[in-house]
Amino acid sequence: MRKKPPVSPFEARKAAAKRAALNALKRARRTADKAGVKLSDWEGEFLTEVSDRVKTYGRAFGDPEKGAAGEALSIMQTVKLKEIAAKALGPGKGGEKKGLHRKPFRRKIEE
Hints:
The chain has helices at 9-35, 41-57, 75-89. By secondary structure, the chain is mainly alpha-helical.
């Protein structure tokens, strides 16, 4: 019985990035459906097309300058995915950006 040749670390990292991207896309859609948040046509199309490209090609972008070599999503696709996921969570649960919640600096009073 022959052993399989070991998988290269680069291939393993690529496969892990692919799985992580697909899981994040599914999670964003599922969260929006559960919360009853209506995604715009563009957002729904984005989730569908990006997941199809990741399944087919292993990554969703062609230009190597738009993202790292071992990543499945480009930098802007990752940002948009995070925005859609935040919208699905709704306000108060990570869906809104939090303001600055610290005391401002005060002038020292000299005595």
